[in-house]
Design brief:
By secondary structure, this protein is of the alpha+beta class. It has a single domain, classed as NADH Oxidase, CATH 3.40.109. The chain is about 45% helix and about 15% strand. It is built from 7 helices and 4 strands. The protein has a 4-stranded antiparallel sheet, sandwiched between helices. Bound molecules: flavin mononucleotide. The site of flavin mononucleotide has 12 residues, from helix 4 and strand 3.
């Protein structure tokens, strides 16, 4: 891979919200997850935890996704153009037919600061996004499940885990994955006022 290839990869990543129903091979998902776990983490605690939802369970989750929409829609109504608002609503109702959802948790313990624990997991999440792209897949990181965090914990069964009972397991986001079925325009990036050189 050349330097140009690398930057081109980073710049071409964009959130995909409409997927083909074809299911990516399990080996591909495992490779993507392996890439996720090459991310850096505070004190190398590798405190990410991933729960993969496919098949009937994925279908069952749509009910929850629809519920998470109710917590977000009013803010989006003010922020988005009507056409984009409608598209986003549809995405929450169907998850764009994504065949795979990866729920990403942090295992927070006292031997690491809270914010670095969270940051470590998001480092892994971006590796997921980029590895998916390399595999010809699309992805969308979603904070929406946080609207119904406790219900998602129940749905996934993580509530039975000892670390959950110790209040150490925290849902941070979900990532939808599948073969892209649209090619949305790249969301604009703002360069101004983001970087200060001293
Ligand atoms: C932490 C986080 C939470 C996000 N939550 C959602 C979400 O709930 N629903 C959604 O459609 N997109 C979500 N996104 C995707 C952003 O809307 C998207 O990354 C942003 O608009 C820039 O577009 P791009 O990813 O295509 O470059 C989220 C992204 C991040 C990083």
């Amino acid at each position: 891979m050349t330097k140009e290839d690398f930057y081109q990869l980073i710049e071409s990543r964009k959130s995909i919200r409409k997927y083909k129903t074809e299911i990516p091979p399990k080996a591909t998902i495992e490779r993507i997850l392996a890439a996720a776990m090459h991310a850096p983490s505070g004190k190398n605690r590798q405190n990410w935890r991933f729960f993969i939802v496919t098949g009937d369970k994925r279908q069952e989750y749509l009910r929850y996704s629809q519920k998470s929409w109710l917590g977000i829609k009013d803010v989006l109504k003010q922020r988005l153009k009507p056409s984009l608002y409608d598209f986003t609503e549809r995405f929450f109702y169907t998850l764009g037919e994504a065949p795979i959802i990866i729920f990403c948790y942090s295992h927070n313990t006292d031997d690491e600061r809270y914010l670095t624990s969270i940051g470590s997991v998001y480092m892994a999440v971006e590796n997921i996004n980029l590895a998916a792209l390399v595999e010809g897949l699309g992805s969308c990181t979603m904070g929406a499940p946080l609207e119904i965090k406790a219900e998602v914990d129940q749905f996934l069964g993580v509530t039975t885990l000892p670390e959950y009972k110790a209040k150490q397991l925290e849902l941070l986001c979900a990532v939808t994955i599948g073969y892209p079925d649209h090619n949305p325009p790249k969301a604009a990036r703002i360069i101004e006022d983001r970087v200060t050189w001293l």
